[in-house]
Amino acid sequence: MEQRTHVLASRRLVGEPVKIEDGKAEVELLTTEEMAVDEYGLVHGGFTFGLADYAAMLAVNEPTVVLGKAEVKFLKPVKAGEKLIAKAEVTEDLGKKKLVKAEVFNERDEKVFEGVFHCYVLEKHVLERSSSFRR
After folding, report:
1. How far is the C-alpha of 1 from the C-alpha of 78, rounded, in Å?
2. CB atoms < 10 A from the CB of 74, how many?
3. Residue 57 Cα distances to 22, 47, 52, angstroms
4. What is the CATH number of domain 11-121?
5. Who's near 39: CB < 8 A, 6+ residues apart?
6. Would you state the pLDDT for residue 122?
7. Per-residue pLDDT tens digits of the chain, which is 135 residues long
8. Who's near 113: CB < 8 A, 6+ residues apart?
9. 51 - beta bridge partners?
10. 27 near 51, Cβ under 8 Å?
11. pTM over 0.90
12. Rounded distance, CA 46 to CA 56, Å?
């Protein structure tokens, strides 16, 4: 399936799409030293979140999709150099609102992150005048 949203997202920062299907997506990210916050190589959680968010947006795959809210859990630490894969699936389609379950796994297939993303498909791009969330 063709990618219809977030087409300019940095593959280096939020990952490389490996699968986009109707209501589902998978994205891979190789973490780097640049993402680490300390001498142990602990990757900042924002990169894991960004990967999961990107997968959620691709699962919806509408050009005007935005994130309104997320309920997430960080389950295990991620170390620089690890490859992560995010799997996202639309679990509830409420018209313009979509609930997306996203999980992130490390290369040992251990779940490191999970969350529910509340995504909204807007009438216009969020940065266009008079665009608003329609809930």
Report:
1. 30
2. 14
3. 12, 15, 9
4. 3.10.129.10
5. none
6. 96
7. 999 999 999 999 999 999 999 999 999 999 999 999 999 999 999 999 999 999 999 999 999 999 999 999 999 999 999 999 999 999 999 999 999 999 999 999 999 999 999 999 999 999 997 555 554
8. 48, 49, 52, 72, 73, 74, 75, 86, 102, 103, 104
9. none
10. yes
11. yes
12. 15
Instruction: For residue 43, give both structure tokens.
Output: 């990757």
Structural domain boundaries of the chain? 11-121
Return the residue matching tokens 């699968």.
Answer: 19
Which residue from 5, 46, 51 is spatially nearest to 29, judged by alpha carbons?
Answer: 51
Three-state secondary structure string covering the chain: CCCCCCCCCCHHHHCEEEEEECCEEEEEEECCHHHECCCCCEECHHHHHHHHHHHHHHHHCCCCEEEEEEEEEECCCCECCCEEEEEEEEEEEECCEEEEEEEEECCCCCEEEEEEEEEEECCCCCCCCCCCCCC
In the chain, the amino acid numbered 30 is L
The phi and psi torsions of 99 (rounded to 5 degrees) equal -100, 130
Under a CB-based contact definition with an 8 Å cutoff, are residues 41 and 77 in contact?
A: no
